[in-house]
Amino acid sequence: MAIDGLDGRLITLLDAEPRIGVLEASRRLGVARGTVQARLDRLRAGGVIRGFGPQVDPAALGYPVTAFATLEIRQGQGADVRAHLAGVPEVLELHTTTGEGDMLCRLVARSNADLQRVIDRVVGFEGIVRASTTIALENPVPLRIIPLVEQAAQES
Amino acid sequence: MAIDGLDGRLITLLDAEPRIGVLEASRRLGVARGTVQARLDRLRAGGVIRGFGPQVDPAALGYPVTAFATLEIRQGQGADVRAHLAGVPEVLELHTTTGEGDMLCRLVARSNADLQRVIDRVVGFEGIVRASTTIALENPVPLRIIPLVEQAAQES
DNA sequence: GCTCCGGCTGGACATCCTGTCCAGTGAAAT
DNA sequence: ATTTCACTGGACAGGATGTCCAGCCGGAGC
């Protein structure tokens, strides 16, 4: 779905100050409240804004260690492996990929030592042939979307 | 920060239905409104809930292709590379890592063909020695946090 | 065993926001 | 020129919010 400059400014504003409501947003953007409401409805209907769920920080929950694991799967075991990984709370994300491995997953753990336990649990499944793990040290660019939103907004 | 069962249920509820307010949440959880408000304040103060920003779907914005790039950096060029990557809108996330590469970044692109342009832009920087890219095909486990929240809540 | 304290309850209050209408205006497309 | 569409500015009732408060309870510490 294409978005214009106003959509972009709205998303950016909501990202910076999620607590403000439709009315306050309309004041900041200099448009009528109905306009903001219509834009929001359109963005939600178009799937651009999926929701406003709470952004939970795993580190604050006691899981400060993040790691990425590349998994190699035995042929035909894909579905089983997915189900297995979906059952591990420390697996925050899973992708199937091209290239060397077959899957890439994001893990968190309570400590480097605890990461071993998590990895054991992840790879302790017959369908997984091999796993290669790298620990994330710093996070210079945290998951973000605003720059992309602005680029998409300008291309309108 | 430790969370208890009520915190866990509250986060899960907010994740499932972000539009409900404090009052409705208190009704669903069977506690007083003040309790929910106090819990929410505590979770935000403790950093567990970082905010309620809009969850934007890159695919809906016209960037349906996701890829992960492992970068090898020339010694001492880390800071420059970070700044460079932070300036590329299609770079959604960047980590420094242990292991084979020095950095891992998440990219999006408008198409497989467009991914080439993004990669060229990413690696078109002197500090980057080598890059290895894998395309994400499926996403069996989208970025999630609830299972981890529930585990953290049970350990209380 | 007793007291203190923190967390929860249930209620109050004024203020503000929300969802949902509507008619009028302007600009762009046909 | 006419239609169409988005935006404006306003209205309305209903409800939520932020912020108090007194009272109650159970656990921790003395």
UniProtKB/TrEMBL annotation, chains A, B:
Keywords: DNA-binding, Transcription, Transcription regulation. Coiled coil: none annotated. GO terms for cellular component: cytosol. It holds the Pfam family HTH_24. GO terms for molecular function: sequence-specific DNA binding. SUPFAM superfamilies: Dimeric alpha+beta barrel (SSF54909), Winged helix' DNA-binding domain (SSF46785). One of its GO terms (biological process) is response to amino acid. Residues 3-64 form the HTH asnC-type domain. Gene3D superfamilies: 3.30.70.920, Winged helix-like DNA-binding domain superfamily/Winged helix DNA-binding domain (1.10.10.10). The keyword DNA-binding applies. InterPro entries: AsnC-type_HTH_dom, Dimeric_a/b-barrel, Tscrpt_reg_AsnC-like, Tscrpt_reg_AsnC/Lrp_C, WH-like_DNA-bd_sf, WH_DNA-bd_sf. This is Transcriptional regulator, AsnC family. The lineage of its organism: Bacteria, Bacillati, Actinomycetota, Actinomycetes, Kitasatosporales.
